[in-house]
Write a structure and sequence with these properties.
Blueprint: H1 4-9, H2 12-22, H3 35-44, E1 50-52, E2 57-64, E3 67-76, E4 79-88, E5 91-92, E6 97-98, H4 99-106, H5 123-150
C-alpha cells in the first residue's frame, strides 16, 4: 500500500524539516550514549520500547487492528535518527525508512544535507525533540487510520 497521501495530508516533510531546523547545533551536541537517560525519556513520554543493544536502537511496535506500526530511534552523540515502517494486512506500506530519506522521497526539494537528523545539546532539548517526533508519529497513525477507513 502506498502511504504517500497520508504523509502529504499531515504535512510530514515540512514538520520534520522544522524539527531539524530548530534543533541543529551539531558543534555543541551532547556526546556519548546514555541508555538509561534515553529509556527513561521514552517511558516518560508514554512509550514502551525494546532496546536492541547490538544495533543500539530502540524499537516501538504497535498493532492496531490489521496495522502494525514500527518506530525506531537511534539516540547517540547528540543525534536523533528515526525510522518508521508500517505493515497493513500483512503487506508492507511504502514509503518507509529513515525520516530524512522518507522526506526526500516525498519531496524532491527537501534538502537532506541540511535537514537530515535533529541534534540535541541537552537532556531538555532531547525531550523536546522526542515529543515533536512522537507527535509526528501519532499524526501519521491517525491519518493512516482515517485513510484506511476510506479504502
Amino acid at each position: 500500500m502506498n502511504t504517500k497521501p497520508v504523509f502529504e495530508k499531515i504535512d510530514f516533510v515540512n514538520k520534520y524539516e522544522s524539527i531539524c531546523k530548530n534543533h541543529n547545533d551539531y558543534e555543541n551536541s551532547m556526546s556519548g550514549n546514555n541508555h538509561e537517560l534515553y529509556s527513561n525519556l521514552i517511558k516518560k513520554l508514554g512509550y514502551k520500547a525494546k532496546y536492541y543493544k547490538g544495533e543500539t536502537f530502540y524499537r516501538i511496535e504497535e498493532k492496531i487492528d490489521d496495522t502494525t506500526y514500527g518506530f525506531q530511534l537511534t539516540l547517540k552523540n547528540g543525534l536523533v535518527e528515526t525510522m518508521i515502517d508500517t505493515k497493513y494486512d500483512k503487506n508492507w506500506c511504502t514509503p518507509d525508512g529513515r525520516l530524512d530519506f522518507l522526506c526526500e522521497d516525498l519531496d524532491s526539494n527537501f534538502d537532506r544535507d541540511t535537514y537530515n537528523l535533529p541534534k540535541y545539546t541537552s537532556e531538555e532539548e532531547l525531550e523536546i525533540i522526542l515529543k515533536e517526533i512522537f507527535s509526528l508519529y501519532e499524526d501519521y497513525k491517525l491519518a493512516l487510520k482515517e485513510h484506511l477507513a476510506k479504502v
